[in-house]
Design goal:
Layout (H helix, E strand, L loop, with lengths): L5 E7 L3 H14 L4 E7 L3 H11 L6 E6 L5 H11 L4 E5 L3 E3 L3 H9 L4 E9 L15 E3 L7 E5 H7 L10 H13 L3 E12 L8 H19 L4 E5 L10 H12 L3 E6 L1 H10 L8 E5 L5 H15 L4 E4 L13 E2 H10 L14
Helix pairs in contact: 6-7, 8-11
Length: 355
């Protein structure tokens, strides 16, 4: 079987020593990949370093020079447009890859419906944390970062690049995940791939970034709706076999960016692990209940959740299961209806790439 062609896109703006270390690690741990470096209007010092670095690469390196800093998202889009591999990896110049990082991403990306794969980030400047369930190596997620991700070319051909009208972070990435899901592709994180994050260079003034984030958040909510955090209790006597459709709905909600805390009794927790439901998505969090005093534990856990998440929504998993000591909780049918309202339309066109 022929090995997949992988292009690694690195948008660069100054920081020559950090960038050189990033490029050297890529060559050491993934020599079969091609480098696409987009020099985003860097200083002459950085430009000379890139020229020196590129000389021995030949066809394994493509260096694109912009006379000015066009911004992170346009620079990444320029690199994606020049990629002709089976997979494209976006990597920040503040990141250093580790042995086996690329093989881990490829292993996770080979499943048919996976379009985006994130590595696990380690170091002092981790942009995203992924609560991967013990015993699992790959889970779906709604958290990715421009510090590192793999995009399947098949997905890029369908949805194009990132929306340059959004911020260079959270809301732009969430928008891309939703666009990918609208075309039937899932987003995953794999612990088989690890990269080390240094401190990322931040562009522009704080006020300008905050304004951009506010506009991006509003644009995302208008396009896709807001995200909610639900706490769900199924009761002690529920038949786990009857929850298949409910769990599927919860998974669809997690793919929309919602978070679910499921309060489970001991036998329910064991059944979830056996069925693989505890490792479906990083947005589905399992909260095991104490077998000795479960009602008291529910009250304790709800208090902790409400302290961390003031707008937490309590949900009765079934009509028969009621939260102990809670007078008002939403029925699961209301949650299911809200999720269905924003289910993907595979025939709907995605927002166009803007360069």
């Amino acid at each position: 079987m022929q090995s997949p062609i992988v292009d690694i896109i690195i948008p660069v703006w100054n920081n020559p020593f950090e960038t050189r270390a990033c490029l050297a690690a890529i060559l050491a741990h993934s020599p079969e990949a091609r480098l696409i470096v987009v020099d985003n209007g860097s200083s002459r010092e950085t430009e000379l370093m890139l020229e020196e670095f590129s000389e021995p690469l030949g066809d394994q390196g493509l260096f694109i020079k912009s006379d000015r800093n066009v911004g992170l998202i346009p620079a990444i889009n320029i690199g994606l447009a020049r990629s002709d591999g089976d997979f494209a990896v976006v990597l920040g110049p503040h990141v250093q890859v580790t042995p086996g990082w690329l093989e881990g991403l490829l292993a996770a990306a080979r499943t048919t419906d996976t379009g985006i794969v994130s590595p696990v980030f380690v170091g002092r400047n981790v942009p995203v944390t992924h609560p991967i369930t013990r015993g699992s190596s790959t889970m779906e997620t709604f958290g990715i970062s421009f510090s590192g991700m793999m995009i399947k070319t098949e997905l890029y051909m369908l949805v194009g690049g990132f929306d340059v009208e959004m911020d260079a972070g959270e809301w732009c990435l969430k928008d891309y995940i939703r666009r990918a899901w609208n075309k039937g592709f899932h987003t995953c994180v794999t612990s088989r791939s690890r990269v080390i994050c240094g401190k990322e260079t931040v562009f522009g003034s704080n006020q300008r970034r905050l304004d951009r984030i506010c506009l991006s958040r509003a644009g995302y909510h208008e396009r896709w709706g807001g995200a909610r955090h639900y706490a769900i209790y199924f009761g002690r006597k529920i038949d786990i076999g009857s929850l298949t459709e409910t769990i599927d709905t919860i998974l669809q909600g997690a793919r929309q960016g919602h978070t679910f805390s499921l309060l489970l009794h001991r036998r329910q927790n064991s059944a979830f692990q056996r069925l693989g439901w505890s490792a479906l998505h990083t947005g589905i969090q399992i909260k095991p209940l104490s077998p000795i005093m479960p009602k008291r534990d529910i009250i304790r856990q709800l208090k902790a959740l409400k302290t961390a998440i003031p707008d937490l929504i309590l949900v009765n998993g079934t009509e028969e299961s009621l939260f102990p000591g809670v007078e008002a909780a939403s029925p699961f049918s209301a949650v299911a209806d809200a999720i269905a309202d924003f289910a993907p339309n595979l025939n709907e066109s995605s927002p166009k790439e803007q360069l």
